[in-house]
Amino acid sequence: AALWGLPPQGGCSLSPQTRISCKDVPAETLYDVLHDTRYRSKWDSNMIETYDIGRLTVNADVGYYSWKCPSPLKNRDFVTLRSWLPLGNDYMIINYSVKHPKYPPRKDFVRAVSLQTGYLIKANGDGACILYYLTQVDPRGSLPKWVVNRVSQFVAPKAMKKIYKAGLKYPEWKRRHDPGYKPWVYPEQNTLPSVSLAELSVQHAESLENIDETGLPEEHLSTSDHEA
């Protein structure tokens, strides 16, 4: 996810912030793209798995997301509380990490922390918008300098371009996949189990495992599409 965030390097925070102008993609379409977990696998090549856990209110839920890191780094996952707010013709989505008793850290992932991540979608004339993204994430661990540089220079900007391209293709895809189903717009469609705020607590990075990956060399970087 994500008011804006992406990973700290051994205690210091890596915080890319980017914006992209999305011609021919209305703000409400991009808002749908960022919400629609069924569509995410079509554009997010870094995603391993994502699903909704439960709802807090009509505009807040808890979800799970696992992220494919470049080899030989270990893959990361998140449990986050996400909230969203339409602001006239603009939209905002933010998230931060929480602890849920039924979704503890898994042995096959490093549990990372979204300190705060956000998207701001601003309408920009007729049928266009500007997407702003800011993230501050602690990936838990001391990362090699080449990873920090790569994320700052390549990963976030390429991800923004993918979201834009996804926005161009979404209307046609949605027409063929339950076009009336948008629980983020129509809360009466939401069938997720209710989650009580009392079940959750803020996920503090210090309470999670901290691993040292600073010695991993760049030449062993996987050629998978992790940068896109």
Automatic annotation (TrEMBL):
Top-rank taxon: Eukaryota
Domain START: 20-172
Keywords in alphabetical order: Acetylation, Cell projection, Cilium, Cytoplasm, Flagellum, Lipid transport, Lipid-binding, Membrane, Phosphoprotein, Transport
Example of a GO biological process term: lipid transport
Region (Disordered): 208-228
Any GO CC annotation of this UniProt entry: cytosol
Listed GO MF terms: lipid binding
Name under which the protein is recorded: START domain-containing protein 10
Organism for this UniProt entry: Junco hyemalis (Dark-eyed junco)
